[in-house]
Write a structure and sequence with these properties.
With 229 residues, this protein is of the alpha/beta class. The protein folds into two domains: 88 residues, Translation factors (Elongation Factor Tu (Ef-tu), domain 3); 124 residues, Rossmann fold (3-Layer(aba) Sandwich), CATH 3.40.50. Helices cover 19% and strands 35% of the residues. The strands form two sheets. Strands 4-3-6-1-2-5 form a six-stranded antiparallel sheet. Strands 10-9-8-7-11-12 form a six-stranded parallel sheet, sandwiched between helices. Strand 1 and strand 2 form a beta hairpin. The relative contact order is 0.15.
């Protein structure tokens, strides 16, 4: 099937939010946290790339958050799309979804690894038996706290949701947390060892956080992750 681009807007330099629809169906079925794969022939090569869905199910529409990779093969092709253009896509797939919405959870993301959590956070909080949820989000600069307004609105609506952005290259105007997500991991977890931790971002960060959690006694089944290079 094909996804048609409806609209887009830039949420940071070289980071774009896309809105697609699938005209041939009425309902695109997926769980928050899953991804779609796009397929296209670029420079005479068939390319397939997976992208996390950043929206809750909404008829035949879905949204993505992509950063432009200079020298990359596929993202320049997608950034060149205009409303009305389309791209071949797969049905949504993936196991990076909420395992138990009645269990306390910590979400940890860096960069565009925040994408699946934009859908997973409200999905978790909408559950009638949801517990405390903490989202620890690491970026370099204040202007790259993607979807900041959305998460702050959720925090204002749900008292059991904590949104903790942390900046690795903060300037003097920033009064929040600084440093990498690893340095705030213990603060987010506290002395609890019975919660689930979901991690998404670059491989080095994900592997480092997993190692810390295992050293703290977390079982591997409590650590749900998705990583990319």
């Amino acid at each position: 099937m094909r996804a048609a681009l409806l609209e887009f807007h830039d949420i940071a330099p070289e980071v774009r939010h896309f809105v697609f629809e699938v005209p041939e169906i009425q309902q695109l079925h997926f769980k928050p946290g899953q991804f779609v794969s796009f397929n296209a022939t670029v420079r005479d090569k068939k390319i397939t790339r997976p992208y996390s869905i950043v929206s809750l199910p909404d008829g035949n529409r879905f949204e993505l958050c992509l950063n432009l990779v200079h020298g990359g093969v596929f993202t320049p092709h997608l950034f060149a799309l205009q409303p009305g253009d389309s791209v071949e896509m797969s049905t949504p797939l993936g196991f990076f979804v909420i395992r138990d919405p009645s269990k306390e959870a910590v979400f940890i993301a860096t960069g565009t690894g925040i994408a699946p959590f934009r859908a997973m956070a409200p999905d978790y909080l909408l559950h009638p038996h949801s517990k405390q949820l903490t989202l620890l989000f690491g970026v370099r600069h204040q202007q790259t706290i993607y979807y900041r307004d959305d998460f702050e609105a959720l925090a204002g609506q749900y008292p059991n949701f904590r949104f903790w952005p942390t900046l690795s290259r903060a300037d003097s105007s920033w009064s929040g947390r600084i440093g990498h997500v690893q340095s705030h991991l213990l603060e987010a977890i506290g002395d609890r060892r019975d919660l689930d931790v979901y991690i998404c971002g670059l491989k080095a960060m994900v592997d480092d956080v997993r190692a810390i959690l295992k050293g703290l006694g977390f079982d591997r089944k409590q650590i749900i992750f998705e990583k990319y290079d």
